[in-house]
């Protein structure tokens, strides 16, 4: 197949595939990412089995929560991206979870002190005072978060050199949690190898993980995509590194 046709077909494929929810099954065979060593989903499942009331903030399509084998009596999830809300509701209905559609950066419409456990996987932004408000005394917040400069290599392949990351540092999260009156009891970090085998996978990833290249569109970034496609074609899969941290805090 001619190189230009191959490029066009791959980017069209990545641009057309749905990105609702927070699953990454579409990338099977096209991209891989190492998993953090702590096993977030297993940690959440274990904690859920020991509490009476729990909340999942930024649930996405409910992918992690749906795997909880022993859900608590009261289980609530919130989601701010409208296309994800019906996906999460359908997925979480079998385990009895309620999904509340919310507005980004607005207080959650939930009663304070209602939850023994609040969890959040890859939150867009953690509102630490709001987390403290929602937890009962002695309650726990457990979250896997995006670390600073995650997949920076991919961002720079599209945008060019970038300044050092100013946000999402674990130390900033600890300071914010402490300022909100919480006590941080666990903090772990991981750097994870992320491999893209074709430019279609890159396009789909950038559409889904929108903070990697803010304002990404195929049309606006076509020259950079073409350069990266040629690099993958001649040098092999493109390797970047995702950064994650696990934080646990108690009220």
UniProtKB/TrEMBL annotation:
Gene3D superfamilies: Vaccinia Virus protein VP39. GO terms for biological process: methylation. One of its GO terms (molecular function) is S-adenosylmethionine-dependent methyltransferase activity. The lineage of its organism: Bacteria, Bacillati, Actinomycetota, Actinomycetes, Micromonosporales. Residues 55-142 form the Methyltransferase type domain. Keywords: Methyltransferase, Transferase. InterPro entries: 23S_rRNA_MeTrnsfrase_RlmA, Methyltransf_11, SAM-dependent_MTases_sf. Pfam families: Methyltransf_11. This is Class I SAM-dependent methyltransferase.
């Amino acid at each position: 197949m001619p190189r230009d046709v191959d490029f066009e077909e791959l980017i069209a494929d990545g641009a057309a595939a749905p990105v609702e929810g927070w699953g990454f099954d579409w990338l099977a065979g096209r991209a891989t990412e190492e998993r953090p060593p702590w096993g977030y989903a297993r940690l959440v499942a274990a904690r859920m089995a020991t509490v009476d009331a729990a909340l999942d903030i930024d649930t996405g399509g409910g992918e992690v929560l749906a795997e909880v084998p022993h859900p608590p009596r009261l289980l609530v999830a919130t989601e701010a991206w409208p296309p994800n809300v019906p996906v999460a509701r359908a997925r979480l209905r079998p385990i009895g979870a309620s999904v509340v559609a919310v507005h980004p950066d607005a207080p959650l419409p939930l009663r304070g002190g209602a939850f023994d456990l609040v969890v959040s996987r890859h939150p867009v932004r953690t509102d630490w005072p709001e987390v403290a408000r929602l937890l009962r005394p002695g309650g726990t917040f457990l979250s896997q978060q995006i670390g600073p400069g995650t997949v920076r290599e991919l961002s720079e392949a599209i945008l060019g050199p970038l300044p050092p990351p100013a946000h999402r540092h674990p130390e900033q999260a600890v300071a914010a949690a402490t300022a909100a009156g919480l006590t941080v009891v666990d903090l772990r970090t991981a750097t994870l190898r992320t491999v893209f085998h074709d430019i279609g996978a890159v396009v789909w990833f950038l559409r889904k993980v929108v903070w990697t290249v803010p304002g990404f569109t195929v049309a606006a970034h076509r020259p950079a995509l073409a350069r990266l496609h040629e690099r993958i074609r001649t040098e092999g899969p493109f390797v970047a590194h995702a950064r994650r941290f696990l934080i646990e805090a108690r009220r």
